[in-house]
């Protein structure tokens, strides 16, 4: 009915708890009214009627939770049906037990969820009128007292339940949007590489084919010109290999500084608190590989987790550049596959005599640490990691 993990955002937890607390409060009041009337000697509230009223109270709450689930899943076809059943069950409860004045509130909150446009407003007014009529007919006190009950309890509880439910729906949509943005960022990078590969290979293969055809035509008639065509063909192949190597190994952004700036903007956009502290890296090769590591770590953080904060540190320790990326919101179900993209980078880091480690740490956090000698030639230092970061 709801998705709850250690990394669930505090706002979403508050919304979930608020919905359940309001429903439980209404259930407790309704059940208390049933037993209260039994103790007062109400002959109409026989044991079977009391049991039915208690069951109807739980059914009303269940209908509302079902409607909330449909909204969270984006299912539209059954919403009106669930709304009707919620109102019917609440009405039966009021008819069977006139003092059950809290139970129309879920029906009102459900109507507010379904309501869209003028027709939705008409549905809300109609349900309020039905609830008011039922409470006036079954109220043990005066009509003024019934109106006061409607204003103070049904409307307050109904609107309150609607507000916290709507908050939960919005937070759930925000979480899905954040995940989609992370996936879109990865897809855009793949599309860019695919497009550039297509253009590069297409041009190279066409040029190679033309040179090869020319060489074949000249093979029997002019060996010197044929040799020139083959030499040009070899140059095309070498140039294509160099371009392909640059495309597949180069970063999407120019430098580590650009990647850090992009990460900060992305985190701000999705509402993740970012703490970035970095020193400049002078060596170009080291700068490029560290930029790729940061890009992959940030992508994994947003794609496979639900972080509320992320810390990125770039420090220099005894001739070694150390990059540490730590985030919370690790989802256990993501498993090791969530970070397999770091395996290729680990090989590239090792080529510069560096080391890359990626591991889950206590507190639902994940940490990526990269150590590369400044210049890629000195042995990597074993300096202090960013403890507790």
Automatic annotation (TrEMBL):
<dbReference type="InterPro" id="IPR050482">
    <property type="entry name" value="Sensor_HK_TwoCompSys"/>
</dbReference>
<feature type="transmembrane region" description="Helical">
    <location>
        <begin position="12"/>
        <end position="36"/>
    </location>
</feature>
<dbReference type="InterPro" id="IPR011712">
    <property type="entry name" value="Sig_transdc_His_kin_sub3_dim/P"/>
</dbReference>
<feature type="domain" description="Signal transduction histidine kinase subgroup 3 dimerisation and phosphoacceptor">
    <location>
        <begin position="189"/>
        <end position="247"/>
    </location>
</feature>
<feature type="transmembrane region" description="Helical">
    <location>
        <begin position="48"/>
        <end position="67"/>
    </location>
</feature>
<dbReference type="GO" id="GO:0016020">
    <property type="term" value="C:membrane"/>
</dbReference>
<feature type="coiled-coil region">
    <location>
        <begin position="164"/>
        <end position="191"/>
    </location>
</feature>
<protein>
    <submittedName>
        <fullName>Two-component system sensor histidine kinase DesK</fullName>
        <ecNumber>2.7.13.3</ecNumber>
    </submittedName>
</protein>
<feature type="transmembrane region" description="Helical">
    <location>
        <begin position="120"/>
        <end position="137"/>
    </location>
</feature>
<keyword id="KW-1133">Transmembrane helix</keyword>
<dbReference type="InterPro" id="IPR036890">
    <property type="entry name" value="HATPase_C_sf"/>
</dbReference>
<keyword id="KW-0902">Two-component regulatory system</keyword>
<keyword id="KW-0808">Transferase</keyword>
<keyword id="KW-0175">Coiled coil</keyword>
<feature type="transmembrane region" description="Helical">
    <location>
        <begin position="88"/>
        <end position="114"/>
    </location>
</feature>
<dbReference type="GO" id="GO:0000155">
    <property type="term" value="F:phosphorelay sensor kinase activity"/>
</dbReference>
<dbReference type="Pfam" id="PF07730">
    <property type="entry name" value="HisKA_3"/>
</dbReference>
<keyword id="KW-0472">Membrane</keyword>
<keyword id="KW-0812">Transmembrane</keyword>
<feature type="transmembrane region" description="Helical">
    <location>
        <begin position="144"/>
        <end position="164"/>
    </location>
</feature>
<keyword id="KW-0418">Kinase</keyword>
<dbReference type="GO" id="GO:0046983">
    <property type="term" value="F:protein dimerization activity"/>
</dbReference>
